[in-house]
Amino acid sequence: MEKPTESGYEVFLSFRGPDTRLDIADYLYNSLIHAGIRAYRDNEELPIGEEIGPELVQAIKQSEISIPILSKGYAASPWCLMELVQMVECKEKWGRKIMPVFYNVAPSEVRYQTGSYGEAINLHINKRRYTDETIQNWKVALSKVGALRGWELKERGKGEFTEEVVRKILIELKKNYLAVSNCLVEMDDQVDQIMEKIGEQTTGTKIVGIYGMGGVGKTTLATIIYNKLSADFDNCCFLTNIRETKIESLQNQLISKVLRMEWPSINSINEGITEIKKRLSSKKVLLVLDDVDQNTQLEALVGQGECWFGRGSKVIITTRNEEVLKDVNLKHELTEMDFNHSLLLFSKHAFRRDHPPAEYIPLSEKAVEICGRLPLALEIIGSFLAGKDRKFWVDSLERLKTIPNKKVKSKLNISFEALEPQEKEIFLDVCCFFVGFDVRIVTYMWDSCKFFPEYSLEVLKQMSLIKIVEGNRLWVHDQLRDLGRDIIRERADFKLEKQSRVWNHDEAIDVLKRKEGTENVEAICLKFDHQSQCFFKKEEFARLSNLRFLRVECGDLDTNNIQHFSLTNWFRRNLPIPPNLRWLSLPNFIQHFPSTNLFLRNLLILSELKWLSWHRFIQYFPSTNWFRRNVLILQNLRYLSWHEFPLFYQLTAFSHMKLVILDLSRSKITDNWEGWNHLKMAKNLKVLNLTECRNLRGTPDFSSQENLEQLILRGCPLVQIDRSIGKLKHLTLPDEMDELEALTELLVDSTSITNIPEWKGMKKLKTLSAVACRSLSVCNFSGCLTSLLTLSLDNTRITELPFGNFGSLVELNLSNSSIRELPDSIGKMKNLRVLRMHCTHLRKLPSALGMLEKLEEIDAGNCRNLEEIPSEIGRLTFLRILRLSDTIISEVPKLPESLTNLYITTRSEMRLPDLSNLLILRVLELGLMSGTLFHTAPSLHWIGGLRKLESLMLCCHSLATLPSDVNLLSKLRKLDLLVDKLECLPRLPQNLSHFRIFGLMEKSIDLSYLEKLSKLEVNNCEQLIEIQGLEHLKNLKYLDIESLPSLVKLFPDSTNLKKLTGIWILNCPKLVEVRGQLESLEILYIMSCESLEKLPDPLSFKNIEQVLISGCWKLEEIQGLEDSEYLKYLNLRNLPSLVKLPDLTNCKKLELLNLVNCPGLVEIQGRLESLERLSIYHCGSLQKLSDPSSFKNLASFYIGESEKFEETLESEEYRDLKKLARPTKEIGRAIRCAM
């Protein structure tokens, strides 16, 4: 598979027509188109047994994002499943995104193929139209896509849902275009030059400085270098926003990131220098310092480089000021981009493609010149102009042209002025205070201020004014940050007392001391160190009447001697709290809470307190009521340790959003403690310590803690572990679980455990399930679990089992594990009744199987490399079920007479086994795929002796004859004959209810004697001219006729099949007529029957609900629809001879009408008051609707290539209908079979 070239499409939409074509797929496709997103949706059905075409594969390859709409019937379509496989392959090879929509199905139903998805997969398996490998690929793709995060559409409105999807798609597309790869072509030479200077493979420490004007791309270039080098470094650190950050904080970040641990606060620059030298001198470090503006920053962070870091370290510095690099030997100047690459970058943001459309080339070139070929300006202005009309472009460029090239910020201001007021407020907040902040936290404040943050942030991102980077952190370019702050100053006429935001500490002190103007302040930041002595009066804070954000940084305060800092007395004296205050930020300021009478009425967030620990219930801790009044506190709390936690307290006071470690050791909590419900919010919890919680008998519901890695249960008298433990994907099983002597069931399904330790104390454990633990490779419980009844290790990486004394084991499941061989010790499992394998690496079964006297079921299906079955299997006198599907066995030994169900499918040449002794066999599936099999094997002479058979499937491409005594199988209800060369069909058992024949060579068959038949499928019988006796099948409900190229007619005139409800007729090119009176018919599908002239009697349409007729070139009319009061879907395609339709007024339930390529149709008659979807395409003679005013419920109307009707739409009578019409240029891909 070659890597796709430049995208022709941005989004690929995959869906199944009958479920969603004129429903959510229609809404979503048109919303994407209207948003300017190039979306692709396929417009053909997949011919049976064929692969999807190269055009469709290429569309999937080219699309940046694929959206499969996973409806209930999605997996029933091979077409959809093949698309899904392609999507997964593109995701894994090239990082394409898949964003699934779960449409009335649960993600788990898709992931694990249960419900309708399991039924569909089984149906594909049974039909044998696709190889086992193909079906396995489908299952893998469904599992992978089902595990992805997507949208669940249940009771949500379609309009609201599609708007959300389109917004997310726009953001994702924007992300793709803003990735550093956009500039890789332009920067290749720059990258090579720096890589040469820095000495990629050298062992010496190198420091390189990149300098250039703001917005020229220094950070992008540094990021590219960082990405190229990071794979060779264990210790990497990228420090951003250096100009705005205190040196001590930068030193702390450097040590913390390199050592990958939280480092204590650094109190002085000299202390930081000492710690860096001490801790990092032996480390090979990759370090980027972005936006350095002072020599002191370099001296405090890297010193002399080689002296501070280990050999081989690399340091990259970016700065606007070359003077900062005076002591750096390796320098690289970055200048503006050349014109061609500037145009390319501009086009990516303005048009989301590499080149502008022809009509926009002159304007785009003009824009590039005006932007001065600076990447930042190109990005901002390109995003600003995206999607605007030509007049807007001309006016905007004229405005930009009047601003000198050097005034880049003034050019960027044009994007700011285009924002709505609330969007401007958020942008200014970010520029002044929130660069690097978690957007999820800041949103609380903005939402309370009615700034509509969700929508506003998306607008800002689409206009490239802000970005949300890793960790949900807000980021703006330094030039945009400066622009925002300049706007604040300009709005205040450069008078400090008029500023709405004050971010500088000295200026903030000045504002607080003023007697006038403080009512203008909305947000303020104070930064104190341990030597600060600043006293505030009550009136000074009282004047901040409009303050909504207050940040007081006291990172260096001695919390044991905090009384000297007068701001603390603010709490103690209960000074008035600003009434509009939403956010109070006090990093490392207090560890003891104020008295319980503190009342912060409007406070939403008290942040930055990162560690809180106390043992026993402390008296001075605030009451629960205090927390209820001051909600959403402790937003940054990561670690909560509270030993001997009281039962009556419920943890309702705390925000659990960032909680990582929770230690409730020796607490009084019980199974039904109400606090468990509140802990469900702790989505990021990784460690839960419940040591010696003596009242705990069972574990809580872990379904919300999917990131939990350590669960400590030492000293807990547990008797039950909740099933939800299976959702903990990162859990490590603790050794202390060995102490759970009363535990009877342990389920750790779908977790990331790597081994199961040797538990010797769990003597009562009966069930151990580790299903889908894909990292599990070691089991050490040999002989310890003496009461174990059920052991499930399917879908693990277990390669061998240390079987010991498992004499009690009843069921063992090893399916889809990495087991290569079963040990002989398996023979000691004397009570084993069920053994399931499905192991692709397994080559043979041990002879010790013959010792398992109680074994009732062996499932070795899908053991694709299984070659050998031991003869000892014949000793298993209780064996009832034996599955050997999809193997390569070449011989089957004599099987035990106790078998009731036998499934054998092999790809090797195998002598047909003699099964004459299996007299109680009820189900037999025999798939012998080798073409030479029956030429060397004996006949099926024994088949007539299996009188208990209820279901028989024979699949063999070379089977030429079938024994005549097959009709003696009086209990047979289901018969599948999948052959290619069967010369003659013998008389079949009269009690058959399901019969499928594939590949018969006869010209005529008579089935009149099969009066109990309810489902009949006749496929790929090339010489079959007629099927006699259908009129006598009075119990027939479903008839499926496919690929019978010689069939001429179906049903005689007298046919009166009272129970027939569904007919599917596909690819019968010589079929002339379908006769009969079929009064119970509900579904009629007829496709690719080019000679068809006549349909069943008009009375057959009385109860019809769905009609699809396509590719019937000679069909002139469809009688009977005028009385179809239950008809919901009418889909007529490629009917060139059809000249008229009956009056559809009585079709009171008709929701969908599709007319495609019906060039002779002149008029649509009737009042269609219930119609919701109407499509008209290539109907050149259609001129009118008999009553255009009747379309009261019409929600979607497609029209294209129908000239006369398009002219009719211009009349006043059709005005309302025209408003719904989709553009004619889009209709080509809008029409597809709706069923």
UniProtKB/TrEMBL annotation:
**GO molecular function annotation:** ADP binding
* Listed GO biological process terms: defense response; response to other organism; signal transduction
Which keywords has UniProt assigned to this entry?
Leucine-rich repeat, NAD, Plant defense, Repeat
**PROSITE patterns in the record:** TIR
Q: Which residues form the TIR domain?
A: 7-173
Q: Which PANTHER family match?
A: DISEASE RESISTANCE PROTEIN (TIR-NBS CLASS)-RELATED, LEUCINE-RICH REPEAT-CONTAINING PROTEIN
Its recorded name reads TIR domain-containing protein
